[in-house]
């Protein structure tokens, strides 16, 4: 039997998954500034994001957006007259084309008198501190400038002069909010469209598999595609039994047959060395020392050396007469 708790949570989960933003597969201005080419390729290919469970934090942001829309609509005290309208909420704009298809999005807010596009971001304390210190991410900047391009191209509410992002605290007080702005830059929006069209052309020519192979995995912790693929690669690299889910029984190979001993070959008989004196065999140790004669065959007193005959002396030479003695 299903408990009340399960029924309660299932209603919330069903509402999150059925929201139009969760069902949207076509790429929009909020994603064209993603730093990951693989994310753009998946969205251009119409792929659904990997399942990450109920997106509760984005659902909180969507609910706050709906409330902000009501508040800013009520702030227009012009009685519905266009000339006196100050705030334009959730206005659909066309930001450009990708592969010949128009890309549209809904801008959160547009302040008509100043020509300022404003985007709401409902974030946690860590992100709020980061953006206050370093400014918005490139993705958020591109999104705001694309909306500015949409209002400028349409021209109905006047050209865009500035873009702004209101970082509102999800946890905390309104006094912690951070409001960032900069002049509208059409070149930033044009570069985002050029990049998306380049990836669309590559996808059309080589297909999704080859296009993904040519694009490296990113390090963005919020990129659901790269994060899922990295986990799959890590599981494959570890090759864990629990990750693979299958047990392959490997038969033990039979032990090799014992080698047959070769018949022994008798060593050649040692040829004894003979004594130079008596002709009998010498002992191996004596021959090994380099002797060729038995020790007993060596005479006790060696023969006296033979006398060496003297060489004949030359004839005496007559004395030389000194002539000066005379």
Task: Describe the overall structure.
- This protein has eleven helices and five strands; from the N terminus they run ααααβββααββααααα.
- By secondary structure, the chain is of the alpha+beta class.
- The chain has one domain: Lambda Exonuclease, Chain A (Alpha-Beta Complex), CATH 3.90.320.
- Strands 1-2-3-4-5 form a five-stranded mixed beta sheet, sandwiched between helices.
- The longest helix is centred in the middle third of the chain and has 21 residues.
- It is elongated, with a radius of gyration of 50 Å.
- About 2% of the residues have low confidence.
Observed structural traits:
326 residues; Lambda Exonuclease, Chain A; 5 strands
Tally of alpha and pi helices: 11
What structural class results from the helix and strand content? alpha+beta
Rg, Å, rounded: 50 Å
What is the CATH-assigned architecture?
Alpha-Beta Complex
Distance between the termini: 166 Å
CATH class: Alpha Beta
Query: What share of residues are in beta strands?
Result: 5-15%
Q: Report the CATH topology name.
A: Lambda Exonuclease, Chain A
Largest sheet: 5 strands, mixed
How do the strands line up in the largest sheet? 1-2-3-4-5
Which sequence of SSEs, written as H and E, runs from N to C?
A: HHHHEEEHHEEHHHHH
Number of strands: 5
Pick out the low-confidence regions.
Answer: 243-249
Average the pLDDT over all residues and give the rounded result.
81
Proportion of helical residues = 25-40%
The structural domain count equals: 1
**Shape descriptor:** elongated
């Amino acid at each position: 039997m299903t408990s009340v708790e399960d029924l309660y949570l299932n209603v919330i989960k069903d509402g999150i998954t059925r929201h139009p933003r969760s069902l949207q597969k076509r790429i929009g201005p909020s994603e064209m500034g993603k730093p990951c080419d693989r994310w753009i390729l998946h969205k251009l290919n119409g792929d659904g994001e990997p399942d990450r469970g109920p997106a509760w934090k984005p659902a909180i942001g969507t609910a706050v957006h709906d409330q902000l829309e009501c508040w800013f609509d009520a702030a227009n005290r012009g009685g519905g007259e266009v000339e006196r309208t100050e705030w334009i909420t959730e206005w659909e704009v066309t930001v450009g084309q990708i592969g010949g298809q128009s890309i549209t999005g809904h801008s959160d807010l547009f302040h008509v008198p100043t020509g300022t596009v404003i985007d709401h971001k409902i974030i946690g304390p860590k992100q709020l501190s980061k953006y206050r210190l370093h400014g918005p991410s490139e993705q958020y900047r591109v999104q705001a400038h694309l909306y500015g391009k949409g209002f400028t191209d349409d021209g109905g509410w006047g050209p865009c002069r500035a873009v702004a992002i209101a970082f509102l605290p999800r946890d905390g007080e309104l006094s912690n909010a951070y409001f960032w702005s900069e002049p509208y830059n059409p070149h930033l929006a044009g570069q985002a469209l050029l990049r998306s069209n380049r990836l669309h052309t590559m996808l059309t020519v080589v297909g999704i598999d080859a296009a993904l192979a040519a694009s490296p995995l990113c390090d963005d912790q919020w990129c659901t595609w790269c994060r899922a693929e990295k986990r799959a690669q890590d599981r494959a690299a570890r090759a864990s039994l629990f990750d693979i889910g299958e047990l392959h029984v490997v038969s033990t190979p039979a032990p090799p047959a014992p080698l047959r001993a070769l018949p022994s070959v008798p060593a050649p008989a040692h040829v004894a060395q003979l004594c130079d004196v008596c002709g009998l065999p010498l002992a191996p140790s004596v021959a090994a020392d380099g002797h060729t004669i038995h020790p007993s065959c060596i005479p006790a007193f060696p023969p006296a050396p033979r006398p060496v005959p003297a060489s004949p002396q030359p004839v005496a030479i007559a004395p030389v007469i000194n002539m000066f003695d005379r």
